[in-house]
């Protein structure tokens, strides 16, 4: 006759002596456990070896404390309804499992409880591994960073980039809670009796209060995750922020985060923790992006409609990333809806866009496609400047992904991006540039939570300048081309443990420039620079584990090798002279495929999170990174026409070492997160340009550049609120970025070898970002930013040479442009009151630079013969308020 589980426990109790007897020492320790965890423990005295009794550690979670206490005694236990604990010898437990009596079949699981595992295996194990996949109920897309936890325990995990999770838990009856930002939480009663799977679908909160957040990871990860300096950004939040002319900008939104800044309005790059703009690795589905903007920096290259999630690593960079020393921005593109077709169209003052997604094969393969077209011509023609009225600016881009489950264990993704920009200034020049970025990946799931991902990427960036100035007509072309193959093998059993190993091989081809005159009368001579080529290889591995409930560790290393390849001519210089054209004493020519120079080295990484109290932790970290390519530029901002160069005979790789420590604390059940992070970074072989450097089509560019030492340090403060009607964050950063160029010869020094501020050194930065939910449809958002003006050099005197008045400038970066500050606001109305509507509309009314601050992008000077020696003028790129209205139509 079958009995339920309760009768089974009573049967065990009947043969036990109970919990009221035993040796005094044993009984005392049992009572300590019972009192600490509010449980009743039952056992037989003859199963207890008093000589092996240890002191129970009641500071541990209940299951860990029991396991640690019982292990020396060779005892196991069974739990019922969280209060009743029955002790069994390990050998007896195995006999129960192998006996003819099928205890598993006697279990009666309450109605509505999901069984995980095989009932016949009940009693054979104390812990079980459960795994599954969390997806969007409407689209079938995997949900990255969803939190999966057992209520009432410390067991939890998060889903990976494929929406999959896995972790080890004690057998028993629990409530499994699944949560993620923007979705209705799922709470499932489960009976875990053995290893098994549980996948589920979550519904988005279309008709719930929405949240704005700068991370998609579980909120408590702010405290428990070993890595620091990481922000995962919710793209929906970016779309709700005020933006320039109504176009949501993925890249510029980063500058509201702590430790991130830009040099000014219309700048396409960003600076992280005192690093240069070329020291940031931007990946789009695993493919690098070399120029991330449209319209010379006013708009982001990335279409926000196509982005699923993006993560910025300012510190704690995983070993699988490398090639840049300051940061990594990992952009994952959207996976198309596998159940139904939907899309949207948008119209703004400059940009029009369309997006569509849907199944190619239902529940198996999907397509997502986005397109944007923009033109500023109609605005430029209404300006007062004659030159601007004769100018034009426009761009177009296409972006798409195809995802397919070839089998239940194999997934293939194709990703592509194409763009073209054209900017003409008056009648003098036409600038155009293109990005072509593609990647393909294959992911295979092996048993035992092992995953293999192979990714191939190609990224091509080309630009062209057509000069139409009389007697100087020419076309100049340049570009950078990159291809790589990468393989990652990941073991992710859950419970905070993950191991990863991988390899990478990448090839660079840099076309440094070719100029051709376009008319017979042009005074420009045809010339071209030598291409630069290089091969970068890497092997890496990392571990993350949680040896104790209060400690999380992460460690890894990356070994990289870079080969500078021919064909190339290398010049040799007299070591007793400053490196210039007159100091050339010889040259060596290398054939195609020849290895000219090889650089290599280890890049160790490590971090730890020490939980000092509930919702509080201290984190420490270190990482070393190497960079083998750099931009050659004498401007503070990245431009479409900057040229890259590789490490080689005259330029050693840039090496960055960063140290960090932080304090993290959450309040009100993780709804309010705060953090303070301190960092210090040293950079070897940092590259700077000489005074009066001429970089245009310079073949032996080493005569115009110097290498030296850089350091940066700072403190980052963040307060973030993720729930309620009012959400947002406040961040403040104090940061310094300094350079020292102190060569042996006077010509190899900058500022006489003394330390000076880097071009992007901005000590103080304050950002306030907020959104207030006025009603279910209406929302108000605003952001305010303030930063110290960037360094510059001013003329301090003048002298006359051959009848010409010449300005004498200060040492480099001894002055600053005026401080920067700006306020933006926006009102938006989203959605509809009809729950079964087929179409949704949204309007956004935005005002950029509310009080018309004329922020200085740069300062220039006009020479006059009177005192003062020169007259300064401030160039403000956007010195007036910019209103905009954006309309979006979504087809459901």
Question: What's the helix and strand layout?
Answer:
Layout lengths: L4 H10 L9 H14 L2 E3 L19 H9 L4 E6 L3 E6 H9 L4 H4 L7 E3 L10 E10 L10 E4 L5 E3 L5 E7 L1 E8 L6 E7 L3 E2 L2 E3 L18 H4 L5 E4 L1 H6 L9 H4 L6 E2 L9 E2 L7 E5 L2 E2 L4 E2 L4 E2 L6 E7 L13 E7 L8 E6 L3 E11 L3 E11 L1 H4 L5 H4 L2 E14 L4 E16 L3 E18 L3 E18 L6 E21 L2 E21 L9 E2 L3 E17 L2 E15 L2 E6 L10 E7 L4 E19 L2 E12 L1 E4 L10 E4 L7 E14 L4 E18 L15 E17 L4 E15 L15 E2 L6 E10 L4 E10 L3 E2 L2 E7 L2 E6 L5 E2 L3 E11 L8 E10 L9 E6 L6 E6 L6 E10 L1
Parallel strand pairs: 1-3, 4-10, 5-11, 5-12, 16-21
Antiparallel strand pairs: 2-3, 5-8, 6-7, 6-9, 9-10, 13-20, 14-15, 16-17, 18-19, 20-21, 22-23, 22-55, 23-24, 24-25, 25-26, 26-27, 27-28, 28-29, 29-30, 30-31, 30-32, 32-33, 33-36, 34-35, 36-37, 37-40, 38-39, 40-41, 41-42, 42-43, 43-44, 43-45, 45-46, 46-51, 47-50, 48-49, 51-52, 52-55, 53-54
What can you see in these coordinates?
With 892 residues, this protein is mainly beta. Helix content is 8%, strand content 52%. The chain has a 22-stranded antiparallel β-barrel. It has a five-stranded mixed β-sheet with strand order 4-10-9-6-7, with no helix packed on it. A five-stranded mixed β-sheet has the order 13-20-21-16-17. A hairpin with a 3-residue loop joins strand 2 (75-80) and strand 3. The longest helix is centred in the first third of the chain and has 14 residues, at 24-37. The radius of gyration is 31 Å and the shape is globular. The two termini are 55 Å apart.
């Amino acid at each position: 006759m079958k009995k339920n589980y309760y009768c089974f426990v009573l049967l065990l109790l009947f043969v036990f002596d109970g919990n009221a007897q035993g040796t005094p020492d044993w009984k005392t320790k049992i009572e300590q456990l019972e009192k600490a965890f509010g449980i009743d423990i039952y056992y037989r005295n003859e199963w207890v070896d008093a000589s092996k009794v240890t002191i129970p550690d009641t500071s541990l979670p209940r299951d860990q404390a029991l396991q640690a206490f019982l292990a020396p005694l060779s005892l196991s236990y069974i739990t019922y309804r969280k209060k009743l604990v029955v002790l069994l010898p390990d050998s007896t437990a195995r006999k129960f499992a192998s006996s003819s009596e099928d205890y598993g079949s006697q279990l009666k699981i309450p109605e509505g409880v999901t069984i995980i595992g095989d009932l016949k295996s009940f009693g054979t194990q104390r812990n079980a591994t459960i795994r599954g996949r969390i997806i969007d109920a409407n689209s079938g897309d995997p949900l990255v960073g969803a939190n999966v936890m057992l209520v009432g325990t410390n067991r939890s995990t998060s889903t990976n980039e494929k929406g999959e999770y896995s972790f080890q838990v004690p057998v028993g009856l629990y409530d499994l809670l699944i949560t993620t930002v923007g979705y209705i939480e799922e709470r499932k009663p489960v009976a875990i009796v053995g290893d098994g799977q549980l996948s589920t679908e979550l519904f988005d909160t279309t008709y719930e209060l929405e949240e704005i957040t700068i991370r998609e990871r579980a909120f408590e990860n702010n405290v428990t995750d070993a890595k620091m300096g990481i922000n995962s950004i919710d793209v929906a939040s970016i779309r709700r922020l005020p933006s320039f002319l109504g176009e949501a900008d993925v890249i510029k939104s980063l500058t509201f985060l702590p430790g991130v800044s830009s040099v000014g309005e219309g700048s396409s790059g960003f600076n992280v923790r005192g690093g240069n703009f070329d020291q940031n690795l931007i990946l789009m589905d695993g493919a690098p992006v070399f120029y991330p903007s449209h319209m010379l920096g006013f708009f982001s290259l990335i279409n926000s409609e196509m982005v699923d999630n993006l993560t910025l690593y300012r510190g704690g960079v995983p070993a699988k990333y490398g090639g840049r020393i300051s940061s990594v921005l990992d952009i994952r593109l959207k996976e198309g809806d596998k159940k139904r077709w939907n899309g949207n169209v948008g119209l703004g003052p400059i940009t029009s866009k369309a997006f569509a997604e849907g199944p190619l094969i239902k529940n198996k393969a999907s397509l997502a496609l986005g397109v944007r077209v923009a033109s500023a011509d109609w605005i430029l023609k209404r300006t007062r400047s004659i030159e601007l009225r004769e100018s034009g600016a426009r761009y177009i881009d296409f972006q798409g992904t195809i995802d397919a489950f070839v089998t239940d264990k194999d997934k293939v993704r194709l990703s592509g991006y194409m763009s073209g920009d054209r900017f003409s200034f008056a009648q003098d020049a036409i600038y155009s540039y293109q990005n072509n970025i593609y990647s393909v990946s294959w992911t295979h799931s092996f048993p035992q939570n092992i995953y293999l991902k192979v990714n191939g990427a190609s990224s091509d960036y080309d630009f062209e300048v057509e000069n139409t100035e009389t007697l100087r007509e020419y076309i100049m072309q340049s570009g950078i081309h990159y291809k790589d193959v990468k393989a990652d093998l990941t073991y992710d059993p859950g419970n905070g443990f993950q191991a990863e190993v991988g390899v990478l091989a990448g090839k660079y081809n840099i076309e440094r420039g070719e100029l051709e005159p376009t008319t017979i009368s042009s005074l420009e001579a045809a010339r071209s620079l030598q291409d630069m080529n290089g091969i970068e290889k890497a092997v890496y591995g990392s571990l993350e584990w949680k040896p104790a409930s209060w400690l999380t560790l992460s460690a890894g290393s990356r070994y990289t090798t870079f080969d500078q390849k021919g064909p190339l001519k290398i010049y040799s210089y007299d070591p007793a002279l400053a490196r210039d054209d007159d100091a050339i004493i010889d040259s060596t020519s290398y054939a195609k495929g020849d290895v000219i120079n090889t650089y290599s080295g280890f890049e160790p990484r490590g971090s730890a999170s020490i939980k000092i109290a509930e919702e509080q932790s201290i984190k420490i970290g270190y990482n070393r990174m190497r960079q083998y390519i750099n931009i050659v530029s004498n401007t503070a901002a990245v431009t479409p026409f900057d040229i890259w160069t590789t490490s080689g005979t005259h330029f050693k790789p840039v090496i960055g070492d960063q140290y960090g420590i932080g304090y993290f604390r959450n309040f009100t059940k993780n709804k309010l997160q705060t953090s303070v992070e301190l960092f210090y970074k040293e950079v070897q072989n940092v590259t700077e340009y000489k005074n009066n450097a001429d970089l245009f089509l310079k073949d032996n560019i080493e005569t115009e550049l110097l290498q030296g030492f850089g350091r940066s340090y700072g403190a980052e403060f963040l307060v973030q609120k993720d729930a309620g009607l009012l959400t947002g964050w406040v961040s403040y950063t104090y940061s310094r970025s300094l350079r020292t160029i102190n060569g042996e010869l006077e010509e190899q020094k900058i500022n006489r070898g003394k330390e000076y501020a880097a071009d992007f050194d901005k000590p103080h930065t304050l950002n306030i970002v907020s959104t207030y939910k006025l009603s279910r449809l209406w929302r108000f958002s605003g952001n305010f930013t303030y930063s110290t003006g960037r360094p510059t050099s001013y003329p301090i005197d003048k002298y006359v040479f051959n009848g010409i008045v010449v300005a004498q400038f200060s040492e480099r970066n001894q002055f600053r442009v005026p401080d920067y500050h700006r306020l933006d606001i926006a009102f938006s109305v989203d959605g509809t009151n009809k729950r079964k509507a087929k179409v949704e509309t949204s309007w956004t009314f935005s005002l950029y630079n509310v009080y018309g601050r004329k922020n200085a992008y740069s300062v220039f000077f006009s020479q006059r013969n009177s005192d003062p020696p020169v007259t300064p003028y401030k160039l403000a790129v956007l010195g007036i308020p910019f209103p905009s209205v954006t309309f979006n139509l979504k087809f459901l």
